[in-house]
Specification:
- This protein is α+β, with helices and mostly antiparallel strands and 348 residues long.
- The chain has 8 helices and 18 strands.
- A hairpin with a 2-residue loop joins strand 1 and strand 2.
- The longest helix is centred in the N-terminal third of the chain and has 18 residues.
């Protein structure tokens, strides 16, 4: 297990911001080469098939990401130094998603030469997850298709997220007419935006998910005006929408467009809600182990996968993107054991 901790330490020492993952990709490829594992590449993505791959078997994808966000303000430690304090391993990307990344790799290598599994395994270390980019897992999926089931490695305390909410970002534009603020002139776009925001604040989507709950809607940004004495003729505000499985992002955008007067422009509708049924074989297996099953409010690479998928990995999401990010080394070791145990018993 120690070699996977050492791999994570090397990754922490390697800057790997989204769209700048080439050095981290090289670290992953060097590790696979030394392990005698053949792999394929595309841009900053790397993937490998199990040695005894058979087209007659279903295929399970084990995927996690190599990119990180930029260091949060407030770091008291060097984010690019893998600092060990007892069981804690500090460093940018240690928890999100270095721990899940190396734990899934260890699991893949454990099964790499096995030919008695009822499924194939393919491992992927992908780019641009933190920005929901289009040059990460999205360009790998056609190369590894068809995929029957996917485990996305994210820090979940090795609990199982059987579903996650989709992400829809809307740019909304309220239009008015400029005028002098000292006189009764113009049509104030900011007031129009406030009226729309009030509608959004009090609106609820009707369909509630048993796993994911309500659709979450938040106005997160607003800008208007050029100077204090001019009535603003335009006001731009941003709405963050987290959809459940009852609404596609396109449907949610259309509902909001009909609700408010402002012009509504979705940035993208591709990051939809995803997951599996609580009756899926993997969910049933996990339940027998006493592992917590839940619905996740945050998005991951699950959002771009069309097949059934789950999110599961060592570490804690609450530590992600925080100053002095860390993971417990024992979390990684126990995570590897748990992944292996589940795949040994899984029948799909």
């Amino acid at each position: 297990m120690e070699k996977y901790i050492e791999l994570l330490k090397k990754l922490i020492s390697t800057e790997s911001f989204s769209k700048e993952e080439e050095n981290a990709a090289a670290v992953m490829r060097d590790f696979l080469s030394k392990a005698g594992i053949a792999f394929k590449t595309k841009e900053n993505n790397t993937w490998a098939f199990c040695k005894n791959f058979s087209a007659e078997k279903p295929t399970i994808l084990l995927d996690s990401h190599i990119d990180t966000v930029r260091p949060a303000k407030g770091y008291t430690k060097d984010p690019f130094s893998p600092i060990e304090e007892g069981d804690k391993l500090f460093g940018l990307g240690s928890n999100d998603a270095g721990g899940p990344l190396v734990a899934l790799l260890a699991t893949f290598i454990h099964f790499y030469e096995r030919n008695d599994l009822p499924f194939n395994l393919v491992y992927a270390a992908t780019a641009e997850e933190e920005i929901s980019g289009r040059r990460g897992l999205e360009i790998v999926l056609p190369e590894v298709a068809p995929i029957t089931f996917a485990i996305i490695g994210e820090p979940t305390k090795m609990e199982l997220a059987i579903a996650e909410k989709g992400l829809l970002v809307l740019d909304c534009y309220a239009h008015g007419k400029s005028g002098h603020a000292a006189r009764e002139e113009g049509e104030n776009a900011l007031y129009k935006a406030i009226d729309d925001i009030d509608k959004l604040r009090n609106f609820e989507f009707k369909k509630v998910s048993d796993v994911l709950g309500k659709v979450k809607l938040s106005v997160t940004q607003i800008e208007a005006g050029t100077q204090h004495n001019v009535v603003p003729d335009n006001c731009h505000f941003v709405v963050d929408v987290r959809t459940n499985e009852h609404y596609t992002n396109k449907e949610a955008a259309e509902i909001i467009d009909q609700l408010i007067e402002a012009e509504v422009k979705p940035r993208s509708v591709r990051l939809n809600s995803s997951g599996i049924s609580a009756h899926h074989p993997f969910a049933r297996l996990v339940k027998t182990k006493g592992i917590t099953i839940y619905g996740s409010p945050t998005t991951s690479d699950q959002a771009i996968i069309s097949c059934m998928s789950v999110k599961m990995g060592p570490g804690d999401s609450a530590r992600s993107h925080t100053a002095d990010e860390f993971i417990y080394k024992t979390e990684i070791i126990e995570g590897i054991k748990r992944y292996i145990e589940l795949l040994e018993e899984l029948k799909i």
